[in-house]
Protein: Hydantoinase B/oxoprolinase family protein
Amino acid sequence: MSTQFDPFDLEIITEHLAATTDEMFATTTRTAQSAMIYEVFDFSVGITDVAGQLVAQGNGLTILLRIFGERVRATLAQYPLAQLTDGDIIMTNDPYGPGGSHLNDMTLVMPVFVDGEVVAFTCNQAHWADVGGKDPGSVSVDAADIFQEGLQLPLVKIFKAGVLDDELARILSANSRLPAVAMGDLHAQAASVRTGARRIKELCAKFGVAAFKAAVGRSIAETAELARAQLRGIPAGTYRAEDVITFAGRQARVCVAVTVDEHGLTCDFTGTDPQLGTMPVNCGGGGLMAAASVAFKALIGPEARVNEGVFAPLTVHCPPGTVFTANAPSALSIYFQGIALAADLVWKALAEAAPQRLPAGHFLDAGIVIVAGPSDGPGGMFIMNEPNPGGWGAGHGCDGQRGLVSIHGGHTLNIPVEVVEQRYPVQINEYSLDTSPGGAGQWRGGEGVVREYGIRTDWAMLASLGNNRRGAPWGVGSGQEGTRSRCEVIRADGSREVHHESARIQLHRGDVARLVTGKGGGWGPPAERDPALVGSDVRDGLVPAAEAPPAG
Structure:
């Protein structure tokens, strides 16, 4: 198909599309109103072809990997090409549909017209600070069903021929505790997809639509072949892993069988327990696909572009109605706990089959903390929401990364201390590495962090979206387990409490919440650690001398 085109032109188009997603990302951060977007980067952007094949995906949450193709195909099912007009932007937060996650994640999809023909779609999915529901921030640890979590928006045209649908905008505003922020983020996302559309139109004007399509097809085909080549380095066979997810006194077994053969890699989650009632720790099938895709991309390596081709060898299967494929009306607001565990299962199953590529288990949860309370500002309240980094597992020949975001965090950051203390009645008393015992090995698991929140208002609600996996991060080859994340609450009267699982906690002035994220698992026997590295561990204060392994 591409032989009639200059290969240099095709490569320029491919790289230009990657640069376009970078520009879409930057446009969003520069114009958004919510700190969850412009500081934390809790969003992602992408481009698909007219059929919904992923062409390029920019920085942002890895948890949103591969969701844009699903969203575009769902859009086309609702609005066939003949019903789309230049300037239309479709919007949804459907958590059960293709590419769905939870209600906070608003997706915008824009068709790109060139000479009356749709040649591509530009997409942006971002976490809105509040979409209603019973709890501030719309992320609830005890919602009974999806209706308690906020506004559900099916696929609708929020912009028609470039004009905002004012009636829909007023509905969105009325269902948020932070309406001005919601509208600001809507326009930031719209600016992003419009920027992407403009750049694609410029490409087509310069090189032609046929060359654009050829470049997209070539890039996807080349990436698919690269992925298959990388996969041939993994020994054929079936690899298994299982774990237990716990929530509110209940638990469910989760498992995966990963089969590598001449056809590709299949992740079969059959045998996973049914969903935990309608509890918010369940996740939908769209999230499961993203989870498996994240682990698969890590296995393939950073050389492969993120497009439809890299996932061509991957098949994911799971029966409906499990904790990974929950049915309506299950609450889904902390779905990312289930997604993280699903990705970790695939990772664990393949770790010993690909020891040069995948490290031991990491802290897994995103270390998310939400603090909300009264405010003199718009809406009468503040809502602070941020993830936190933790420890990653050690790998073959290297210690685990310290203070790094979790597998589904991607490029996310926590909010700078100065911004937290300037914008919210919260004081960060401590931000440091956690040196608790755990993760020992020939190569040590990385340290998590300590982040201490002091409350400077009369009352506040804190949601600590902790680790709902029963066990600690796993080690490899006699390496020790890491540690579980926890939230320690020190009351003004001196009393203390510890929460490992997700919890909503009422705080008052003078109370302190101390988040400690987990440490990664170790790799290899601790006694085989290089004595010089042991000495460095002690000198750096990472390991007390009394706990250092004896010299080999």
Summary: The mean pLDDT is 93. The CA atoms of residues 537 and 543 lie 6 Å apart.
